[in-house]
# Entry
Amino acid sequence: MTLDDYKSTLSFPVPPGGVQGPLKALWLDAKGNWDEAHRLVQELPDRNAAWVHAYLHREEGDLGNASYWYHRAGKTVAGGDLETEWEKIARALLRELTGR
# Structure
């Protein structure tokens, strides 16, 4: 699945099959369901979940908490446009999912 394919699923009422974990959380967030996205990544122990968790707290405006989660994810604290970061994370997670 490409980033464009993934973004096109945002018109669906539910995430597409195979979209789980941090990628599902990004999907939920893009659909305006921040709370559910946050609940989902909060329960996952891996670095990708921590990266999405960091993004969600940055989006929320809680930069101290975001910084903690970027550190847990092994990522540099992001700045700039949230949409660009969302796409960067989604692209990386899709690449990992598809192996491309």
User: Anything to note?
Assistant: The two ends are 9 Å apart (CA to CA).
